[in-house]
Design goal:
284 residues; mainly alpha; elongated
Amino acid sequence: MKTRQWMLAAILTISGTTTSFAQTVQPYIELDQLPKLVDIMPAPPAFDSPEFANDVVRYGWGKQQRQDADRVALAIADAEWNDHAKLFLQWKEAFGLEINETNTPEIWKLMETSLATTDPMRTEPKAFYGRQRPFERFDDSMPSHEEEYLRGEGSYPSGHSLRGWTISLLLAQIAPQRATEIFSRGWDYCNSRVIVGAHWQSDVDASRTAASVGFCALQGNAAFIAQMKKAQAEYAEKMGLSSGVRSAVVVEHPSTTAYQLNGQKATDSTRGIVLMGNQKVVRK
């Protein structure tokens, strides 16, 4: 028990240094108000279990991927943690837009505050399980050169993967029409943690679940909902999705196909501002 408590204190200290941005960005929801991952997710596979055998196989798969120079370069770029401009740049092609504080301030604010909310969810299970990382177990080097930074920090779940899948969920909510590209990028981003030897496959798989838990919690927060609407509107403006639209008119019973500002097809029950033809319409 004393060992477990010591590990908890040590890893929380490490986590405090890796989420410094969260200290300056007020989260939408405080950590103690979020669902507890330790109570939700199962323990990581034991080292003598069949499930861990799959982790070892996937570790071997990751080592093979290092023979592809382009893929390992992407995995190294995906290891970025502190510079969020570089982090979000990894989704530029999939999202169709570069996210930065200057040109997309509303999207940036949404992403920064959301990650400040969900990133810390990883700290308790990492400390509670204290799982040894692949590069440590096999005394291996990492192409991303994170050994000193990560050594001794629990492997389960993957913090990078939790963050990467959260980013994908958020961006797909902003631009649902690009969800396929966004989630494909997010899936590869998570796999990068296996390729560099930072995480077992089961760490990554658990992180996708963890990200979904945090994402669902955000959906019930009023400040998040308001900022998401601003982010969606900014994306539509930057991508020219509302260009050439005339002033709004009010209709009681719309009879033509309408679309929401985020690009989704509106239903008969949709109210508020929608796009009909080349007009912005207010449905009452």
